[in-house]
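Q: Hand in one record:
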Amino acid sequence: MNLDTREPMIDTLGVLETAALLRELTAGLIAVAGFDEALDRLVRIARDAVPGVDCCGFTALRAGEPAGVAASDPARAELDDLRHGPDTPAMTAIRRREMITAADLAEESPWPAWAERARGLGVHGVISAPVDVDEQVIGAINLYAESAGALTPRHQLTAMLLAEHAGLLLAAARDRERQAARADQLDTTLLAEGVVGQAVGVIMTQRGCPAPEALDVLRSAASSLDIPLREVAERLVLTVSRPRDN
């Protein structure tokens, strides 16, 4: 087992293989709206794209929230889950802020209980690389091999690339998630306001559509007319409330 990642890497990923890996990772995560969905895609892509890796997991620590976990193989998810104990390769990588590798878990391990569970699940090698997402979330991506000695310096470089690139993509997913939450909160506030809520009610009645769709119609009208949303709502409510001439 080797916990020192400063040894020279004698193998390197080819340029085309590296580009293909990062391109696939970007395509899989770039449009994902939720952080948890992004984690699920990340571990599946890593498992399928990296030769010699039999499963992949992610351990996430979020400020003020329980640790999160994603696993390409649900039957082995406990290897990434800190509820089974914090003495794991992932936590070692996170604490030390460096990549951790154990090529053969049958040898002496600094995580004896974890290593025993891993071997019981058919895992005999691991690489954990720390991932910085943002000021509230840190984590580690974990690559697992069923065969002892299957993880090489080439896999260490792969893990490093995955960690660096995934950190950027996961940060973007977190940002999209926060923006969506703010938009939902804004929608709720607007729907609760008198004149906007009334206008939305009018559109719902006229079109037979739900409130979010009616609010989008109102927003589209405001954008097309280049006037504030509240003014569009006031005009609509005023129009429908006028008595019609006989």
